[in-house]
Amino acid sequence: FDRLKKDHDILLKSLEETRSKNNELANVLNELVVSEQELQDIIDHVQGRLVLNEQVARNKFAQGNKYKAELRQLNEQIATTIARRQSLEGINNRMESQSVSDSRTRTKSETTAAT
């Protein structure tokens, strides 16, 4: 009977140690689950930021292309305006030359008529 009692006590002690170890393992497992969830939350947050940054980058790229197109159009307008101005200056110079020539012709005619 003493031997059974002793074996029983040993088994109870072993059972307590096993329960204690199981509780420790359960706590570690819970911490791991919490850590895994925290990591998943961080991953989700980072992925969300990446998607947002990608959208921002695409918008800025599209905006840059829009500005390039507007700049091209403005450069074309400037070139057209410069060409028109040069054309008008040419016409103006020809008209002034013609006017001076007509004035000289009239002056010669008037001088000739006066003599």
Any chance you could write out the topology, listing elements then pairs?
Layout: H1 2-114
Structural summary, described in words:
The chain is rod-shaped. The protein contains one helix and no strands. The protein has 115 residues and is an all-alpha fold. The chain has one helix spanning 2-114. The relative contact order is 0.03. It is 98% helix and 0% strand.
Shape: rod-shaped
Major β-sheet profile: none
Strand content: under 5%
User: Span between N and C termini?
Assistant: 167 Å
Question: How would you briefly describe this protein structure?
Answer:
With 115 residues, the protein is mostly helical.
What keyword list fits this structure?
115 residues, mainly alpha, 0% strand
